[in-house]
Amino acid sequence: xxxxxxxxxxxxxxxxxxxxxxxxxxxxxxxxxxxxxxxxxxxxxxxxxxxxxxxxxxxxxxxxxxxxxxxxxxxxxxxxxxxxxxxxxxxxxxxxxxxxxxxxxxxxxxxxxxxxxxxxxxxxxxxxxxxxxxxxxxxxxxxxxxxxxxxxxxxxxxxxxxxxxxxxxxxxxxxxxxxxxxxxxxxxxxxxxxxxxxxxxxxxxxxxxxxxxxxxxx
Length: 218
Description:
mainly alpha; Arc Repressor Mutant, subunit A; three-stranded antiparallel sheet; 10 helices
């Protein structure tokens, strides 16, 4: 969830997604930005955003007209209500801009949306007084932490929640504190960590963090 910071003391260039990570062979800037953006979207919102962005790229335009039926075809979603909720979420998070009066409830009717690129979305959020991405992704602006962040957001095996838990774990937070930050129970945090350990082939936190901070490795 995006939140309004108490003060806007940072400019866009001060956030970690604008820093060179020093490992271009691991991830391009665009992939890192998309990974960070995914942390602020729900899975359904991000699936919808990627589909809308793809459609504008194919048509070589920044704004495109979509019906609910077309969005369902692009994403494979099977509920009109799910698509409408995801669209509203993308608008509220400043990822897309609805250029029509409202989102039509009729499946065949269309609305026009301007679809922003990730760096534009972060800039729009900052200009509106919003944090550009969830707070758990902040504080990764030195080289080692940036390397860990890159590996987390590029890891396709991690769910969005697992990535959030892992980001806070790397920052040294306890399971209880991570649970408070994410508004889940400590047992839920432990559940996610067990899956993270399996996916990274480690048995404990120290091994996990070491693996993320190593310059070379799988």
